[in-house]
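Feature request, filed as a ticket because there's no other form

It would be nice if the structure record came with a short human-readable summary line next to the tokens. Right now we just get the raw output. Example of a typical job, pasted below so the devs can see what we mean:
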Amino acid sequence: MKKITYLILGLCVLTSSCTMMVKGIAKLMVKNYNDYTSTHISDVKIVDPEGRNQSFGNLYNGKTVYLYVWGNKKRSVQQEKSYQQLKERFAKYPDVVFSELYVGSDTSSNTSRLGDDTPSAEFRKILMIGDPAAFIIGKDGAILAYKGPRPDDKIILDYVLYQAMTGEDGTKSAKRFIRGMNGNSQFKSSKLIEWYTGHFGKAPGDKLNVSLSSTN
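Raw output as currently delivered:
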């Protein structure tokens, strides 16, 4: 896996030009989240470990889905821990559900997998999975974040997933988040402060550790 983690702010002694440079990198990393916002996967067939076959739309109708997709390379211990913590943070939102989809070659896997119909085959083509990757699917079945932020990205992921409940795509919400931070790793946006306080149950600290990972 090629993974580049940027601390969006705080990588150097920040001058205004350095801040813009780091924010520019971050914006480039999130610009592809909305690559497939016109693609809907409601008709994609999901086969559960017992062999039962249902459409994605029937399973998750009216829900925002954080879809964790992985192939033969399994999640690391740290990735698994971060994923469980993410689910705990979003347990209070009934509109958000979590789903795992296995697209590897082990037919004995006890995780849900794609069906063999045409919509599922088309979806498999755009997944292009090497390492575990995350997708956010809107309530109408549209892909709102293509290879979006991972559980290790924490704060920015929480914001993108939270905004997805309103149907906003990941690129738009991630860029708003990036613009809303200043050179001292603090929120300069009152709306982000309000969101953080409500979501995490506490005011943001003096300096936020914000990271962003890239899936290739």
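Something like this underneath would help us a lot:
The chain has a mean pLDDT of 86.
Residues 7 and 209 are 7 Å apart (CA to CA).
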